[in-house]
Amino acid sequence: KNGTVLHQVKHAYATMPETVNKVLNQHSVGKKAFIQGWIKSVRKLKNHIFFNINDGSTREAIQVVAEMEAAQNIRTGASVSVLGTLSIAPNNQKELKAENVQLIGDCVITEGYPFAPRKVYPPEYVRQYLHFRPRTNRFSSLLRVRSNLLTEVTKYFNEVGFIHINTPIITSNDCEGGGEVFTAVPANKELIKQMGKPGEPTEKTYFNSEVYLTVSGQLHLEAVAHGLSKVYTMGPVFRAENSRSRLHLSEFYMLEAELAFINKISEILNVIENLLKTVTRRVLETSQDDINYLTNNKDFSWLDKPFVILTYDEAINILSSKLKMPDTDARSETEFSKEDELAVVSYCGNLPTFVINWPKQVKAFYMRECEDNPKKVSALDLLVPGVGEIVGGGLRENTYEKLQKNIPSDDKNFEWYLELRKFGGVPTGGFGLGFERYLQFLLDIENIKDAIPFPRWPHNCQL
Ligand code: 4AD
């Protein structure tokens, strides 16, 4: 009764469906292949029709040649399945000689499909159609690089002895203490009413306290590092910032690592530099074709040079004395603006640049005081060209009394965090790398919304 299913059954007895990547790169000429994908372009000659099919497994499309009557309703954007034999076209390219072409889903542009054949659209236009964006050449390349990047990160951490941990999404702590949290409330009002006790605000009745979507997995990662020593996590984090900048999302992915038994910030800097260099080198190999296409053979010479290390005071000095940035004095002892970050990196030869030893008041409560200056903390930011900060981290305060002073005294939710210092405490440190910002840096992506499949930012969560 169902045409589509019948087509698949008809093909299946001959051979199983394979990816375009496998057929193009592993099949020998003369072998039968059954592929499925979307048509990228069509050329009709007198008796034959030529069309290119891509299924997302590779950047390449495979050319199919079919007899005209076998492929009557073929048009760009439609999904099809093709059974054929791999052969060599007169231009020496591999080509599938079709024996059977089946239309799976038609695509009629005049009925509202937003992309015309062979036309290139600016990212802002493509972003209006997030549900169709994975079919565009550039975005499918980005998604393959993103996937390979995560594979290489996982492989690398495994090789250097880190254990992967899942940290919770729902949490009662605001790790960064910035108040940029989304509150999680059950949607079922009836349930809230049933569970609520008289006099308690309804939002708190499900978990008996206010709970949030996590802004960082760090605090939980620290607890696990106190048993497994070297741990990492990669998960979504949520920030209720009112920022519509090209570098901010309300939901993004953070790669966080935590190490126990470390006393020097240089140990964390080494982990970050080795991670970024090794993973980048490897993904340049595994995603060579996609990266060349996306970046037009960009220069990666930073991979062969050491990262720059500056103290906060040195960076301020560069901004005020060397670069004569306006208002630098007024901004000293504060966070850097985006302009400051990019100016420091440019001054440092466009090399990734660590800024360490930050003023205590601009960093979160958990940062460890510098041994030689209690006004400074052993915090780090890593700044890169085009993006600015991509990593934040540092040593954690491991002295119980000092940490207790930094935590707001009325906040009971941090008792467990303090206890880590009380029972078998060890010095720890770690960092968080913004995964989308890393992709922006790697691939010269101007807007962070083009580095994640379904971006969320203020006023935008329809899809
Ligand atoms: O500097 P942040 O806030 O550090 C932390 O959350 C630490 N608890 C991490 C740790 O030590 N385990 O954020 C880390 C990184 C930033 O450097 C940036 O790359 C990215 O997360 N980031 C964002 N990316 C996209 N959109 C946002 N709104 C971001 N906020 C931070």
Quick structural summary:
By secondary structure, this protein is an alpha+beta fold. 30% of the residues lie in helices and 25% in strands. It has helices spanning 3-12, 20-26, 123-126, 137-159, 189-195, 218-228, 265-286, 288-295, 312-322, 328-331, 338-347, 400-406, 415-422, 435-443, and strands at residues 17-18, 32-44, 48-54, 62-67, 79-88, 94-105, 163-164, 170-171, 182-183, 212-213, 230-238, 251-260, 308-311, 353-359, 369-370, 373-384, 388-395, 428-434.
User: Quick one: overall form?
Assistant: globular
> What would you call the structural class?
alpha+beta
Question: How many DSSP E strands?
Answer: 18
CATH architecture of the largest domain: 2-Layer Sandwich
The end-to-end span amounts to 33 Å
What would the average pLDDT be, to the nearest integer? 92
Task: Indicate the CATH class of the largest domain.
Answer: Alpha Beta
Structural notes for this entry:
By secondary structure, this protein is α+β, with helices and mostly antiparallel strands. Helix content is 30%, strand content 25%. Helix 4 packs across helix 7 and helix 4 crosses helix 8. Bound molecules: 4-amino-1,4-dioxobutan-2-aminium adenosine-5'-monophosphate. 4-amino-1,4-dioxobutan-2-aminium adenosine-5'-monophosphate binds at residues 175-176, 216, 218, 239, 241, 248-249, 252, 254, 256, 389-393, 430-432, 434, 436-437, 448.
